[in-house]
Amino acid sequence: MQARLIETVEIAPGVRHFVFAALELPRLSFTPGQFVSLSGAVDGKTITRAYSIASPPSAGNRFELCLNRVDSGAFSPHLFDLAPGDVVEMGAPLGTFTLREPLRDSLLVATGTGVAPFRSMLKAGLRAGSPAMTLLLGARHESHLLYREEFEALSRQYPRFRFWPTLSQPGPEWRGRTARVQAHLAEAIDGRTDIDVYLCGLQAMVDEVRQILKGMGFDRKQIRYEKYD
Ligand SMILES: Cc1cc2nc3c(=O)[nH]c(=O)nc-3n(C[C@H](O)[C@H](O)[C@H](O)COP(=O)(O)OP(=O)(O)OC[C@H]3O[C@@H](n4cnc5c(N)ncnc54)[C@H](O)[C@@H]3O)c2cc1C
């Protein structure tokens, strides 16, 4: 399968939002939380990397990704060099990092571009009367809070959705939460063990949060996670 790049927008330093159209398909079918694999030739070698779909399923073949440029990385700089109209190879959507059924009150924890699958899940799933959802999103600086305005708008629209951004290196004007996501878990969970927790980001955060949750009495089945590295 192939995808054509429609547009990219810088949404934070070193982070871009990509809009693609899957070619030869009237509609791209996937479950929020799944990823696609993109492949391309870099220095004569074919490289493949996974990227979580950041948009909700739609009636068409468009889908969105949120990519961090890893400067020393083999593939992400190549994707950042694509221009609208360029075509990349892609695999069908895959993965089991999806919301559990039946949906229960949930905590979603992300750092950096780990928020991508949560954007898809929340945009697809939030409705009046949905279970309570909290998105705990960690970043170093305010400028790295990805899709902040969108999540703030969702939290105004759906009172049972809480958006909790936290900064580990806040500027002097920041009045919100500080420190890493780990520091806010206990408050977000509030002593409950009947909720599901979803984690997405780099391995160090995911492993550390899983350990904390196990210590709080969470069962493995209640914790779903996706590690990017
Ligand atoms: C299921 C899955 C979904 C993923 N979804 C996304 C996504 O939505 N957006 C995204 O940007 N990446 C995502 N990744 C990571 C992505 O597949 C690549 O690993 C990333 O683009 C780096 O590739 P590279 O070839 O440039 O770097 P490589 O040459 O492979 O170097 C890897 C280095 O990059 C670091 N790294 C990997 N991902 C990131 C990241 N996102 N931010 C900072 N450092 C990183 C690793 O720790 C490692 O040190 C996902 C990975 C998996 C397994």
Overview of the structural elements:
The protein has 229 residues and is α/β, with parallel strands linked by helices. It has 2 domains: 2-90, Translation factors (Elongation Factor Tu (Ef-tu), domain 3, Beta Barrel); 106-227, Nucleotide-binding domain of ferredoxin-NADP reductase (FNR) module (Rossmann fold, 3-Layer(aba) Sandwich), CATH 3.40.50.80. Helices cover 19% and strands 34% of the residues. The chain has 5 helices and 12 strands. The protein has helices at residues 76-80, 116-125, 148-157, 185-189, 203-215; strands at 2-12, 15-22, 35-42, 45-52, 62-68, 87-90, 106-111, 133-139, 161-167, 177-178, 196-201, 223-227. The strands form 2 sheets. A 6-stranded antiparallel sheet has the order 4-3-6-1-2-5. Strands 10-9-8-7-11-12 form a 6-stranded parallel sheet, sandwiched between helices. Helix 5 (203-215) links the parallel strand 11 and strand 12 (223-227). The longest helix has 13 residues, at 203-215. The model has no long low-confidence stretch (mean pLDDT 97). It binds flavin-adenine dinucleotide (FAD).
Set down the secondary structure blueprint.
Elements: E1 2-12, E2 15-22, E3 35-42, E4 45-52, E5 62-68, H1 76-80, E6 87-90, E7 106-111, H2 116-125, E8 133-139, H3 148-157, E9 161-167, E10 177-178, H4 185-189, E11 196-201, H5 203-215, E12 223-227
Parallel strand pairs: 7-8, 7-11, 8-9, 9-10, 11-12
Antiparallel strand pairs: 1-2, 1-6, 2-5, 3-4, 3-6
The chain binds flavin-adenine dinucleotide.
